[in-house]
Structure formats: structure tokens, C-alpha cells
Amino acid sequence: MGVEVSVANLTKSFGSQNIWRDVSLTLPRGEVSALLGPSGTGKSVFLKTLIGLLHPEQGSVIVDGTDITECSAKELYEIRKLFGVLFQDGALFGSMTLFDNIAFPLREHTKKKEDEIRRIVLEKMELVGLAGAEGKLPGEISGGMRKRAGLARALVLDPEIILCDEPDSGLDPVRTAYISQLLIDINAEIDATILVVTHNINIARTIPDNIGMLFRKELVMFGPREQLLTSEQPVVKQFLSGDRFGPIGMSEEKDSAVAAAESAMQAAGISGGGTTEDFSEIIPQVQPNPGLPVRQAAIRHRQHVLEILPTLPPRAQEAIRKSLALSAVE
């Protein structure tokens, strides 16, 4: 079962450049969360801080009861064994076969014998749809296959926390859908805590239990997906609709003159180029494939949503009640 990851007042800078400040959130154990935000907002930096590859200027990262910003190198080494990480490009060794790439963590961090390593590697390769590709090199396969090989390697130590840095980057919509389904299926099977960093709106609307969004060096929101998908916050609405009208600009934020001009264009009925959906209906969450266990995370998540429902705006309450009723029927 996954463990809880709690971040409090986290601030990270590179020299004089502040990346984000005072970020606080909790990744609920066993649930799938997504971190959104425009390019350049430090989402990947956040992942690296969670596993101790980068050290924050202030704040805490508590993993399974241990603050990794203050623990010893030996304690950090043990904590990292809880994590499986899928990097953007898969981060495979080009001179190794897929089998050896996926076996690498087992050979590096365990004392398992080769026959046991082979059993585990082949099991994970089958899980991600790579059975029969053990002898191929990373340069001989597609980007989607490299992503799946990276995911298999992230899973070989049976992690309790899985971090995925833009699992959809470089993939077409069909392969993205396969990777997304795979994450839900894995969550159903092992109840791991999963954090997906992405700017893919389809993933954000259909995969996670919880969503967070970074903008202007701060965490704008973090909470149940239903809460963010019905949010009236301008930056959240703009990002989810993919519209150019709103606080997000080409570089960072817009000045008042540009914002005023866009308001006038909207009033004149000129489109900002985004989706025309009004998000009054919450798209159902992706479910595990037939034959897999019921996601325990979904049960815990539903209870949490019901608890916070009375605190949300009436329009959001109505949309959420409809989505909960539909999911109950399914």
C-alpha cells in the first residue's frame, strides 16, 4: 500500500531565481494525483525535490514519517527505495537491452539471484505490454515503448510511491491513453501513491483523484479533481480550457493593458481559441480494466469528496453530485 507524502512551506530557488515558494500539499496514500501548470513553472523541479535530488531553501518533505530535508544520507537512501520514478525520456541506458535496463535497480539495490531477477523483470515487462522485447535496445524501439520500459523499471522494486514526469510527452493521443490506463490499473493492483506531472488536459480530467496547479511561483490549488474541474478561478479555468484569454501569457503573466484588451475582445464575441466546453459536467474518471480489483483509492476519495461537498459553490456541488451518481451507477 502507498504511503502519504506531506509537503509544507516548500520553497526552491536556483541562485537569485525563485522557482516556487511556500508550497504545501499532501499526497493521500494510495491515491493518484496530478500536478499541472504552464511550461516553466517548476513541476519537474518539484518531483526532484520530493525524492531528495534537489534540496529546498525552506520547508519540509515528510515521507512515511521522515522529513527527507533533514535526515541523514543513509536514511534518505532507504526512503528512496519507496519511490519508483518515470522520467520524461524514460532515462534508459542506450547500450543496455530493455531486460538489463529494467533489471538494473534490482542488481544495484538488492541481493536477489539472477533467476529471481529474471522472473520479476519478465513479470513487469508483461504488465506494461513489452513481453518478448527483452533483447531490444532503446534505440530500436518507439518512444511509447521506451516510456513503458521506463515504467517497468520504476516498478521492479515494488514502490509504494510512483512519480511520473510528463508520461505523455512525445506520445500520440492513443499511446497516451494506454499509458494513462496503465497507471490506473497499477494503482488498482498495488494501491501505490502516484503523482503525475503533466500539462495534458485529458489526463488531468480523467486520471487523477486529486489535482494541483502551479502558477506564478505558487501552488494555486490542490484538492479533489472534482473541486478543480468546477473551479471558477480564472487561471484554472483558462488552463483547463486551453484558452489564450486569461492570466496566463506566452512568457508568464500578462500586464493590465493586454488583459484589458482581451476582455474587450471577449465582450465582442471574439474567441480565444480554446475549447467551447463549459465544464458543467465532470467527465467520468478512467476505471481499471475488467478483472482487476476495485481501486481502494476511489472509495477513500469518494468519501473525502462527500465530506467537503457542502463547502463548495452551488454550481460545483450540482456538477459533483451528478458525477458521483453516474460513478455509483457504473
Short descriptors:
330 residues; 4-stranded antiparallel sheet; Rossmann fold; 10 strands; alpha/beta; globular; 6-stranded mixed sheet; 12 helices
Topology, element by element:
Blueprint: E1 5-14, E2 17-27, E3 32-36, H1 43-50, E4 58-63, E5 66-67, H2 73-80, E6 83-86, H3 98-109, H4 114-127, H5 143-155, E7 161-165, H6 173-190, E8 193-197, H7 201-206, E9 210-215, E10 218-224, H8 225-229, H9 234-241, H10 256-267, H11 296-308, H12 314-329
Parallel strand pairs: 3-8, 3-9, 6-7, 7-8
Antiparallel strand pairs: 1-2, 1-4, 4-5, 9-10
Helix pairs in contact: 3-4, 3-5, 4-5
End-to-end Cα distance, whole Å, is 25 Å
For the record, the CATH architecture of the domain at 5-82 and 159-228 stands as 3-Layer(aba) Sandwich
Helix content, binned percent:
40-55%
- CATH class of the domain at 5-82 and 159-228 reads Alpha Beta
Strand content: 15-25%
- Can you tell me the residue ranges where pLDDT is under 50 for at least 5 consecutive residues? none
- CATH superfamily membership of the domain at 5-82 and 159-228: P-loop containing nucleotide triphosphate hydrolases
CATH-derived topology of the domain at 5-82 and 159-228 = Rossmann fold
Rg over alpha carbons: 21 Å
How would you describe this protein?
The chain is an alpha/beta fold and 330 residues long. Among the domains are: 148 residues, Rossmann fold, CATH 3.40.50; 34 residues, no CATH class. The strands form two sheets. A six-stranded mixed sheet has the order 6-7-8-3-9-10. Strands 2-1-4-5 form a four-stranded antiparallel sheet, covered by helices on one side.
